[in-house]
Amino acid sequence: xxxxxxxxxxxxTGGTExxxxxxAEEMVRLGHQVEYFT
Length: 38
Hints:
It is a single chain. The protein is of the alpha+beta class. The protein has one domain. Helices cover 39% and strands 26% of the residues. A two-stranded parallel sheet has the order 1-2. Helix 1 (15-29) links the parallel strand 1 (2-6) and strand 2. The model has no long low-confidence stretch (mean pLDDT 90).
């Protein structure tokens, strides 16, 4: 599955950024393709 994650920043400075990275890592581990949009 292709997944797009949209967030304000790519820096790991806050809660939503950390959550987005953790979510993306897990989705990639499960075999999905993840892209970021900032």
